[in-house]
Amino acid sequence: MPKETETTLNKNNGYIIEMIDVTKSFGDFNALRDINLKVNKGERIVICGPSGSGKSTLIRCINRLEEHQSGEIIVNGIRLTDDLKNIEQIRSEVGMVFQQLNVFPHMTVLDNLTLAPISVRGLKKGEAEELALYYLNRVHIADQAKKYPNQLSGGEQQRTAIARALCMKPQIMLFDEVTSALDPEMVAEVLDVMVELAHEGMTMLCVTHEMGFAKEVGDRMVFMDRGIILEEAPPNQFFRSPQNERAKKFLEKILSHY
Amino acid sequence: MTFNVRIIIEYLPWIKEGLTFTILICSLALPIGFVLGSVVCIALMSQNSALRNIAVAYVEVLRNIPFLILIFIVFFVLPFYGLRIAPLTAGIGTLSVYASAYFAEIIRGAILSVPKGQREAAQALGLRPGIIMRKIIIPQMLGYLIPPVTNIGITIIKESSVLSVITVTELTYYSNYIIGKTFSPFEILPLVAVIYLIITAVFSLGMNVLENRFIHVENFGRLGI
């Protein structure tokens, strides 16, 4: 079957991300085992589970920061393989925000945002800066445009990272424990930005421990443990009556804090 | 003992010639060594294990033999295998190769010192490897690169004095020559020591200026969370 028809078929399935029987190992350690996940456009998936369950590995496989050993990953109709063209295309449609912030410390906030639009999308400097300022406004830090990251608070740096990802106008945003390394008083400002993003219809996959956020914005909770997806359910159902034993135990531990 | 300044004045032209050669040798050996070191570094970090092993062997051998022995081998042993090289060329070449072993490891360390997340964030944005290297990795590497490079640079400048034993007419060679002729170590040696000090000081100062120009330290601080 010609490749074009194959991807058109996938597009017609309607899923913006499809993971089929995906496994990923680091040497002897199985990080992901038989992962099957289908994400619809506009859906907000919250991935939770104990440490080492493979949550980060799962989303990192989607933009090829990790390479899966077997199974299929299809993002926006494009099959994720060793083909560099595919990888680059997928990466330009998928934005990622990290726990460690990873803003470029040697560049101003504005330059952090304009680098990719200029190098990858070929925008001119003026256009890129206009785009950057638009997103800086969206995350409420437009006044910090000319500052360097180390002059900003953690929350502001993370919002810079979000705006930077948004400048590439991705179809999907991946959030990997983006508030876990922040001081508590800065968590809210970042979550607020993510809530706004969700309300605008962005497809989001969030690895997070922020259950309040999950309840407010999540369409589907995905619970993982030891590399396997054990339960998938809408937040209300998941929090009120988890089916899986390990999920129950996990929630008991987490929700005792609330 | 009185300090006989006349000896210094009389032999100043020879000191100058020696100094010229020392500066020439170091001005060539350091950049050549650095470029060669970069190439070796690429091999050190290569996916190809054969290439990597060759590079590791190169670095280990060159770092673990005294430079004096190395230069003796090049000058006295290689001719038996048909490789006879003029002293100056042999000197600059061997010093470059010797420096490259150190530089390769320094550059590798500097690349590894840039947090992995920087490359990942750049990749996630869809940036191509060339741009990532040029705009993200190398600028951040400089901060980790310049201090050790300054260190090795000073070592190499001092090590150039060893070339005197294979008749390269640099500063130490003339120092020994003049002392041999005039029996005036008391005058010549402190002078030569001071000259070496000035050379390395100028070099360090230059590296400092470079550091300040390319690294806005006040803007560069590691991200505080």
The total count of strands of chain B amounts to 0
State which percent range the strand residues of chain A make up. Answer: 15-25%
Tell me roughly what share of residues is in helical segments of chain B: over 70%
> Shape of chain B, please?
flat
Given the structure, what is the number of helices of chain A? 10
SS strand fraction of chain B? under 5%
Give the key terms:
heterodimer; A: 258 residues; alpha/beta; six-stranded mixed sheet; 41% helix; B: 225 residues; flat
Can you describe what's shown?
The complex is a heterodimer of chains A (258) and B (225). Chain A has ten helices and ten strands. Chain A has 258 residues and is of the alpha/beta class. In chain A, helix 5 packs across helix 6 and helix 6 runs parallel beside helix 7. Chain A is globular and about 55 Å long. The N terminus of chain A is likely disordered. Chain B has 225 residues and is mostly helical. The longest helix of chain B has 40 residues. Chain B is flat and about 70 Å long. The C terminus of chain B is likely disordered. Classes of the chains: A alpha/beta (258), B mainly alpha (225). Chains A and B meet through helix 3, strand 6, helix 4 and helix 6 of A and helix 5 and helix 6 of B.
